[in-house]
Structure formats: structure tokens, C-alpha cells
């Protein structure tokens, strides 16, 4: 079973997490520009199943805020640069996919995107924007995506396979 412990950390470009022992009555989390710090009084309290669930829920809430503050504006700017119109953007807790695009121009972004490096975040954003032009994964779709990914769309897709959302998933 994966658990959050004092040694747990995330060091992604948009989402840093560390645990710090401090004189607090329970477990507390704070977010700033540098990332998230979870304060705890003793490592023993981190073994509690309810505390583990609270940490997961809290990290997901912070990740959602980061996506809304950082990735949604990037997505809309990319759309503007490409002359595309996005109807709406939602941030989901989807664990099976990084993003999706509907035929109505609605784009869903997974809150787990904050775990990716910027170049892969950009790949996902451009991938979903390309679906505004091609609602499939045809050769034409990949050619259009290659135009905005310096010809590296399939290489970036392959690199994405090294990342997953399991960090927040507790068993």
C-alpha cells in the first residue's frame, strides 16, 4: 500500500510537495508559490487511514487550483495563437486520461497534469486543441499536431508513457 510518509516528496515544475515536522495539533497543509508543505507533529499520525485520505483530497484540491491558475491560461493563450475557439475548460479528477475535447469545443484537463514537466503539459494542451480541428487520431490529426510540436508529437506521446497519476492514488 502506498502511503504518504515524512520522506514523501514531489518535485514537479508546477507542483512541489514536502512534509515537515512541526508543533501542530493535527496535520496541516499550506500552499505558496514554491509548493505545498504538509506539517505534522509525529510520523505516527501519518499512519492513520483518515489522515492519508485527507492528504490525498487536499493534494487534489491544490493540484486543481494550480491547473486553473497556470494551465488553463496557457491553453487559452495557445488557442488564441492558433486562431481556435475553446467553448469551456473544466478541470477534472480523471485518472485515465490527461485531457479530452468534446465536439462542442469543451476541453477537460486532468488535475494530474501538474505532475508533468512543462513540455509535456504543452503537448497535452496542444493535443486537445488539435481536436478542435480533427476529432480523431487520423494521420491528418498527427500532422496538424506535429506543426505545433516541432515534428515531435509521437515522440512526446511516447514520453508521456513514463508518467502516471498513481502518486495521488492511495490503496
Would you kindly provide a brief summary of this structure?
This protein has 171 residues and is α/β, with parallel strands linked by helices. The protein contains four helices and seven strands; from the N terminus they run E-E-E-E-H-E-E-E-H-H-H. The strands form two sheets. Strands 1-2-4-3 form a four-stranded mixed β-sheet, with helices on one face. It has a three-stranded mixed β-sheet with strand order 5-7-6, covered by helices on one side.
Defining traits:
171 residues; alpha/beta; Zincin-like; four-stranded mixed sheet; three-stranded mixed sheet; 7 strands; elongated
Q: What Rg, in angstroms, do the CA atoms define?
A: 18 Å
The CATH superfamily turns out to be Metalloproteases ("zincins"), catalytic domain
Classified by CATH, the class is: Alpha Beta
Shape: elongated
Percent of residues in helices comes to: 25-40%
Number of strands: 7
Order of SSEs, N→C? EEEEHEEEHHH
> What's the CATH topology name?
Zincin-like
The share of residues in extended strands comes to 15-25%
Largest sheet: 4 strands, mixed
Mean pLDDT: 93
The low-pLDDT segments are none
**Distance linking N and C termini:** 5 Å
CATH architecture name:
2-Layer Sandwich
Question: How would you describe this protein?
Answer:
The structure is a single chain. 38% of the residues lie in helices and 19% in strands. A four-stranded mixed sheet has the order 1-2-4-3, covered by helices on one side. Strands 5-7-6 form a three-stranded mixed sheet, covered by helices on one side. It has one domain: Metalloproteases ("zincins"), catalytic domain (Zincin-like). The longest helix has 34 residues. It has four helices and seven strands. The protein is elongated and about 55 Å long. A hairpin with a 4-residue loop joins strand 1 and strand 2. It is α/β, with parallel strands linked by helices.
